[in-house]
C-alpha cells in the first residue's frame, strides 16, 4: 500500500482531520469539537485519541504513514514543535505538541502556524498550482498570510515572514492592534472593510442604502458592504474601491519584491469572488512595474476549508523529505 | 591543494576578477578595462584570455577550481547562462556567456545579475554574517537589490525578485523610468535624493546653503545634500529626513513581509554611513510591528567594491553544490 499522510487543522471551534495520499488527494476526513476548557489541556489528548481511533477503524498502522502535519493558531517554534499564545485555545503557556503526539503515536509530526499551513495547501493543490513561488493572503477577522519562495515556506529570523497583514499601506492610517498604524489589516480584514465604510461615510453626502444603514446604527458587516456594492450602491462601490486600492498596493509591492507566480487571496472577505479579485488586480497593475505586471497573477483561493488539512499534509511531506 | 573559486564582477568600465578560497577569502585580485566596442563582442574573449593568463601565471590548472561565478548588468537567464539588454556593455542581443566561457576554460560557470550577486557577497562575507535571511539594497544611480531567504537567492517567476527599487512608496509620487510612479528609486537613488531636494526647495522659505545652491542653478549632488545636512543645514536635514522616511517605509515593509536577519544598505548613497543608517532605522522602527522591530536589523554594507567578486564566488560555490 502506498503511504499516507495525516493533516490536521486545529481551530478554536473544531479540529479538522484528513488522511491524504502523497499526491495530496483527500481520502478520508472527519472533525471533532475543540475542547478549550482547563487551559486547553484536553486538546492534544483528544487529537491523539481521534487519530488512534481512525487508524484502528481503517485497519492501518503507524508504519503506513509518512507523517502528521498540523496548522495551529498562536506562535509556533517549528524546531521544537511547540506552541504558545494561542488565546482562542486557552493555550497561554508553552505546549510541547510535537513531543506529546510523536511519543503517543510514533509517527513523525510537523507543526506550523495556520496561515503558513493554508499557504502550503493553496500552493500545493489550490490556486498556486504547485509553483515554487506563491504568496497567500487570508482576509478574515484579521489578515494573515504565508510565502513560498524558491519552493520553501519562509519563516524569517523570528518566524514573522508572511505576516502581510501588518504591511504599512498608509503611513497616516488607522491605529492597529499591533501598535503601529496604517496596517493592511486595518483596512482589508472583515472589520477593516467596515472601518473604511464608517470612515468614508462621514464625508459621503449622496444617496446610499449602505450609508443609511451605518447612520441608523445598524450592525453592518463586510459581507453587507460587498452586497450593496454588487447591487450598484455608489457609496458601497467607493468603499470597495478604497479597500481594493490598499490590497492592490500591498499585493503590488509583494509582486515588486518577490515576483511570485501568483498572489492568492483567501479568507472570508474573498467570498466576494471575482468582484473583489478584478478590482484588486486593477490596482495591482497600477502599482507594479511591467515585468511583474506581466508575470505575477492575482488569484482567488480554491480550497476553502480544506486548505488547512491539505497544507498540513504538505508540511508533513516536506518535513519527511528534509530528514 | 584546496580548491579555489574565481569571482568576476562585470561592469561598464572595468571587469574585476578575484581568486578566492571556498571560505570566501580573496587570495588574488586584478582587473581589466571593459572594451564595449563593436557591440561588446570583445568582452567575453577578454575575460577568457585574462583568466587563462592568470591561471598560467599562478601555475594552476582547471581542476584546481570549483567554478567561476559572474555578476553582470542586464537581464540574465540563469538557467541558460545568457545575458540580454546590458546597455552599458552594448549588449543588445542575447549573449551566450556561459557556453562561451565553459567551452573555452572547462570550468563550471554560473551567472546572475549584479545586484543579486552583490547581495550574495554581503550576505556571505559582509554585513549579512552568512545568515539564511538577508536583504540587500543598493542606492546608486538607480536602486537595486537582492533577497536571500531560507538560504536561497530569490528570482521569482520572471527573474524580478529583489527589484526593490520599484516598490511603490508614494502612490502619488514622482514618475519613474519603469512607467509607474512613486517608486523607491525616484526618491532614494543618487538622482532621487536631488529630486526630493529640488521638489521640497519650492516650499522651503528659511535660510539654507543647499536651497541657495539649488536656486542658483548649481549642479547639486546627493553627496552635497548629505554634506550640508551633516553640517546642520535645516533644509538639507529636511530632505534627508524625507529620503529616510521613504527608505524606512520600504525597508519596514520588507521586514514585515520577510523578517530577515538584516536589511543591508549599500551603494554610493550609503557613503553617508551611520548618519543615513540611523535615520532609516528610526522610520523602519515606526513602520514595523514589534516582533520584526525587535529581530530585523538595518545595517550598512561592509564589502564596498569587493561585494561583486565575493558574491560571484558565492554563486559559483552554490552552483557547484546544487549539481
Automatic annotation (TrEMBL), chains A, B:
EC number: 2.7.1.2
Annotated residues for binding of Mg(2+): 113, 116, 145
GO biological process: one example: glycolytic process
Domain of life: Bacteria
Keyword terms: ATP-binding, Kinase, Metal-binding, Nucleotide-binding, Transferase, Zinc
GO CC annotation, single: cytoplasm
Pfam families noted in UniProt: ROK
Top class in the EC scheme: transferase
Binding site for Zn(2+): 166, 176, 178, 183
Keyword Metal-binding part of the UniProt annotation: yes
GO function terms (MF aspect): ATP binding; glucokinase activity; metal ion binding
Statement: the UniProt record of this protein carries the keyword Nucleotide-binding: yes
InterPro entries according to UniProt: ATPase_NBD, ROK, ROK_cs, ROK_glcA
Family that this chain belongs to: Belongs to the ROK (NagC/XylR) family.
PANTHER family per the UniProt record, alphabetical: BIFUNCTIONAL UDP-N-ACETYLGLUCOSAMINE 2-EPIMERASE_N-ACETYLMANNOSAMINE KINASE, ROK (REPRESSOR, ORF, KINASE) FAMILY
Protein name: Glucokinase
Organism encoding this protein: Enterococcus faecalis (strain ATCC 700802 / V583)
Amino acid at each position: 500500500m502506498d503511504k499516507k499522510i495525516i493533516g490536521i487543522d486545529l481551530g478554536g471551534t473544531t479540529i479538522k482531520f484528513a488522511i491524504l495520499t502523497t499526491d495530496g488527494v483527500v481520502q478520508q476526513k472527519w472533525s471533532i469539537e475543540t475542547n478549550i476548557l482547563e487551559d486547553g489541556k484536553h486538546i492534544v489528548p483528544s487529537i491523539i485519541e481521534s487519530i488512534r481511533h481512525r487508524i484502528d477503524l481503517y485497519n492501518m498502522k503507524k508504519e503506513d504513514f509518512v507523517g502528521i502535519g498540523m496548522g495551529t493558531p498562536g506562535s509556533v517554534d517549528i524546531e521544537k514543535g511547540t506552541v504558545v499564545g494561542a488565546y482562542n485555545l486557552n493555550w497561554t503557556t508553552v505546549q510541547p505538541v510535537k513531543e506529546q503526539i510523536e511519543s503517543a503515536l510514533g509517527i513523525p509530526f510537523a507543526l506550523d502556524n495556520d496561515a503558513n499551513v493554508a499557504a502550503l495547501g493553496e500552493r500545493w493543490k489550490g490556486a498556486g498550482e504547485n509553483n515554487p513561488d506563491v504568496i497567500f493572503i487570508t482576509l478574515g477577522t484579521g489578515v494573515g498570510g504565508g510565502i513560498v519562495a524558491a519552493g520553501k515556506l519562509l519563516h524569517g529570523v523570528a518566524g514573522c515572514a508572511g505576516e502581510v497583514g501588518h504591511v504599512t499601506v498608509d503611513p497616516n492610517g488607522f491605529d492597529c492592534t499591533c501598535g503601529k498604524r496604517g496596517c493592511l489589516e486595518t483596512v482589508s480584514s472583515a472589520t477593516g472593510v467596515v472601518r473604511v465604510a464608517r470612515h468614508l461615510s462621514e464625508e459621503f453626502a449622496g444617496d446610499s442604502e449602505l450609508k443609511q444603514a451605518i447612520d441608523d446604527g445598524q450592525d453592518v458587516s463586510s459581507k453587507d458592504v460587498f452586497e450593496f456594492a454588487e447591487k450598484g450602491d455608489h457609496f458601497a462601490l467607493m468603499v470597495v474601491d478604497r479597500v481594493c486600492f490598499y490590497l492592490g498596493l500591498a499585493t503590488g509591492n509583494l509582486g515588486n519584491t518577490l515576483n511570485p507566480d501568483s498572489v492568492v487571496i483567501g479568507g472570508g472577505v474573498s467570498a466576494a469572488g471575482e468582484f473583489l479579485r478584478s478590482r484588486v488586480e486593477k490596482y495591482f497593475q497600477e502599482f507594479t512595474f511591467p515585468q511583474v505586471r506581466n508575470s505575477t497573477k492575482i488569484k482567488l483561493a480554491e480550497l476553502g476549508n480544506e486548505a488547512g488539512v491539505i497544507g498540513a499534509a504538505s508540511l508533513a511531506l516536506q518535513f519527511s523529505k528534509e530528514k
